[in-house]
Specification:
The complex is a heterodimer of chains A (218) and B (117). By secondary structure, chain A is mainly alpha-helical. Helix content of chain A is 72%, strand content 0%. Chain B is mostly helical. The longest helix of chain B is centred in the middle third of the chain and has 108 residues. Classes of the chains: A mainly alpha (218), B mainly alpha (117).
C-alpha cells in the first residue's frame, strides 16, 4: 500500500514552522528539494513535510510533533478555562460590590447580607486560586517545550550515531568481502542522505524505485 | 611465422578469456559481498526497529506525563468553575430577595396609615 501524506492546512504548516526545533530539523532532512523551501518565512512547505514524514527514519520527528500538538491543545484548553474563570471573577466582583453597596445603604445589621458578603469574597478567592493554579500549568506546559526540544535533539543524535555505526559495519563488511573503498567512497557511505536524495540517485542509476514510494516523491 | 590475422584472433580470444575470468571473479566477489551484507541488512532492520520503538516510548512517557499532570488540574478547575457558578447564582438570589424586601418595606412605609391631622 502506498503511503500518502494527508493534506496539511496552511494553518498547520505555520504552527509547525513556528516551533524552532521542528523547523530546523525538517530543514536538516530536506536537503535536496531546496527550491521548494521558502527560506524567508518560518513556514514549512507541504513538500518538505512530505519528504520528512514519509521517511521511516524520521519517525521521532513525527512523535515529537504529535506530543507538541497535544501540549498545544492542552495549553489552549487551559487558556479557555482561564478565560471562563475571568468571566466568573468579574461576575463575583460585581456581586461583591452590590452586597457592599447594599450593606452600606441599608445601614442595618443583616445576618444574611454579611453571610453573602463572606461567600462572595470566598468565591473571588477561590477563582483567584484556580487562576494561579492554571497559570502554573501554563508555565509548566511552556517549559515542556524545552524538554521536548532536548529529547528531539538527543534522539536525532542517537540516529546519527546509529547511522555512523552501521556505516562503519557496512564498510568493514565490504572490505572483508575484498572490496577496496576509496576515501571518497567511505565518506559517501558515512554521509547522511535524505530519502529524496536516495530516490534521485536511484533514478540516475536507472534502478527500479520501491513500490510503496509515495507519488509525491517519485 | 604467424599471420597478422592469427595474432589478432589469438589476442582477441585471450582478451575474452581474461574478461570472462574477471567477470567470474567479480561475480564471486559480489556473491561474497551479498553473503556478508545480507545478515548485516537483517540486523540493521532489527536494530532500526528497536531504536524506533525505544524512541517512541520516550515520547509516550512524555505524553502521559502531560496527561496526568493536566488531568487533575483541569478537573479541579472545572469543579471550581461549576462550584463558583452555583454559589454566585445563590448569592444573586439572596441579593434579589433582599432588594425585594427593601422595596416591600418602603412600600409599607409610604402606604401605611396616615397620621391624624
Amino acid at each position: 500500500m502506498k503511503k500518502e501524506l494527508p493534506l496539511i492546512s496552511t494553518y498547520s504548516q505555520i504552527i509547525l514552522g513556528g516551533w524552532p526545533a521542528i523547523f530546523e530539523i525538517v530543514k536538516k532532512y530536506t536537503k535536496v528539494r531546496k527550491h521548494l523551501i521558502r527560506s524567508d518565512l518560518p513556514f514549512l512547505s507541504y513538500e518538505q513535510l512530505e519528504e520528512v514524514f514519509l521517511d521511516s527514519q524520521n519517525h521521532f520527528i513525527l512523535d515529537s510533533i504529535s506530543v507538541r500538538a497535544k501540549a498545544l491543545l492542552d495549553l489552549i484548553h487551559v487558556q479557555v478555562q482561564l478565560d471562563a474563570l475571568e468571566e466568573e471573577k468579574e461576575e463575583a466582583m460585581k456581586v461583591l460590590e452590590q452586597i457592599e453597596g447594599y450593606a452600606r445603604n441599608s445601614g442595618e445589621e443583616n445576618l444574611k447580607i454579611s453571610q453573602a458578603f463572606e461567600e462572595a469574597r470566598q468565591c473571588v478567592k477561590d477563582i483567584k486560586e484556580a487562576q494561579s493554579m492554571l497559570e502554573e500549568k501554563k508555565k509548566h506546559l511552556a517549559a515542556l517545550n524545552e524538554k521536548m526540544d532536548k529529547l528531539l535533539a538527543s534522539q536525532d543524535k542517537e540516529w546519527e550515531n546509529f547511522r555512523q555505526e552501521w556505516a562503519s559495519q557496512l564498510i568493514e563488511g565490504l572490505e572483508s568481502a575484498g572490496i577496496r573503498l576509496t576515501e571518497l567512497e567511505v565518506n559517501e557511505i558515512k554521509r547522511q542522505k535524505t530519502l529524496y536524495e536516495l530516490i534521485e540517485r536511484m533514478k540516475e542509476l536507472n534502478l527500479s524505485l520501491p513500490k510503496d514510494l509515495p507519488e509525491g516523491l517519485r | 611465422m604467424m599471420q597478422f590475422e592469427t595474432i589478432e584472433k589469438t589476442a582477441f580470444d585471450l582478451e575474452i578469456q581474461i574478461n570472462v575470468e574477471n567477470a567470474s571473479l567479480e561475480a564471486k566477489q559480489l556473491k561474497q559481498v551479498l553473503k556478508t551484507l545480507n545478515p548485516q541488512s537483517k540486523a540493521y532492520k532489527k536494530a532500526q526497529q528497536l531504536l524506533e520503538s525505544e524512541q517512541s516510548k520516550a515520547w509516550d512517557a512524555l505524553a502521559s506525563e502531560i496527561d496526568q499532570e493536566l488531568e487533575s488540574t483541569m478537573t479541579q478547575a472545572d469543579q471550581k468553575i461549576s462550584d463558583v457558578k452555583k454559589r454566585l447564582a445563590r448569592l444573586n438570589k439572596v441579593l434579589r430577595q433582599q432588594a425585594e424586601q427593601v422595596v416591600e418595606r418602603q412600600a409599607v412605609r409610604t402606604s401605611g396609615p396616615k397620621r391624624p391631622s
